[in-house]
Amino acid sequence: MEFEDYPVQSLLFITHRPNTVFTHGHGSWIYDSTGKRYFDFIQGWAVNCLGHCDKGMIQALSTQAGKLINPSPAYYNEPMLRLANFLTTHSVFDKVFFTNSGAEANEGAIKLARKWGRTRKNGAFKIITFDHSFHGRTLATMSASGKPGWDTMFAPQVDGFAKAQLNDINSVERLMDDDTVAVMLEPIQGEGGVVPATREFMQDLRKLTQERGVLLIVDEVQTGCARCGVLFAYEMSGITPDIMTLGKGIGGGVPLAAMLCREEFAVFEMGEQGGTYNGNPLMTAVGLEVMTRLSKPEFLENVRSLGAYLSEQLLALSEEFGFAGERGDGLLRALLLGRDIGPHLVERARQLNPDGLLINAARPNLLRFMPALNVTREEIDLALSKLREAIKEL
Ligand SMILES: *Cc1c(COP(=O)(O)O)cnc(C)c1O
Fold this sequence. Notes:
Elements: E1 22-26, E2 29-32, E3 37-40, H1 43-46, H2 55-65, H3 78-89, E4 95-99, H4 102-120, E5 126-130, H5 139-144, H6 150-153, E6 161-164, H7 169-175, E7 180-185, E8 188-189, E9 195-196, H8 199-212, E10 215-219, E11 243-246, E12 257-261, H9 281-294, H10 297-321, E13 326-329, E14 332-336, H11 342-351, E15 356-358, E16 360-363, E17 366-369, H12 377-393
Parallel strand pairs: 3-15, 5-6, 5-7, 7-10, 10-11
Antiparallel strand pairs: 1-2, 2-3, 4-12, 8-9, 11-12, 13-14, 14-17, 16-17
Helix pairs in contact: 2-9, 3-9, 10-12
The chain binds pyridoxal-5'-phosphate.
Pyridoxal-5'-phosphate (PLP) binds at residues 101-103, 106, 134-136, 186, 190-191, 219, 221-222, 247-248, 257.
């Protein structure tokens, strides 16, 4: 079917989309309605960690769909309990609350921190977050985010978020006062352009928050679930956070996210948190299949080795075209272009023939790569040869 035959006018405008309708996908490839295929280096925005339409996920989803889809959040169900237990045994956290999106998980973290501040820290409520951070699109998570322009977009903001600068511990310390209840950050700023918090900064942050009796919240919606070559990115800095949020990869493409905390911070009381779909067995069954596979030592080892390979190849590309290098961890990486040609490259790469390439310019001067975590070296080579083609055409 051609694009013109689809009733696109019924959809509320929120962003410019290309005149393409995607119909199916397999592994690292996605196909549109005209039959054209594209190598997918975006994977549903770092979501499809096992690629498109993974067999094990289809199996988990369809088996669960035939058993029980939603008994209501007021009752226990098997996959919900199994996945929660899997997450607590594979992390430093003791308690899990499931949500449907990363933003909702972060809302939960913000609410939990405020509740803790109210009952254990003399009403402290302020949460220090960072410039260029991204925590979601609800009013509170937009207020927590440090995206330029977001402070006035839907004013007035939710109160109580102060912005510090990433990797500058003094900027955090300056903002701390008696009202401060938590510091919240992404171990690597994803939407901000793949900007890692240094190991030293994470450790300083942990030390400072501990001294002041302030919670440390890591938003691992993008960095968690094996994306960086470890199950959770906080492991790389050798710290123990108090609260963590997960999303994206945890469902391998289905809407699932989670908020985790350590025992001593599990302070919600009856009726303070919930949601109709939270912890439904259909999504948590898929999450269990995904997380079980991601957590295998050989899977993580492979992500690290693929990450090192992608890094090497991006550096070579950078040298070949006089760009500004690359950065990231595991399979969350950015090619630094040194000039604002990102959006043009995204466009050119998609339009390549016979096969297109889907990439993302998180900022105009860089490209972000978030392939399936089970991508192969051959596929990386192929994708980068397509990228090379697009660069040369520019
Ligand atoms: C994507 C993202 C979110 C928001 O997740 P949604 O599922 O889109 O609500 C929050 N934090 C980070 C770090 C993200 O990358």
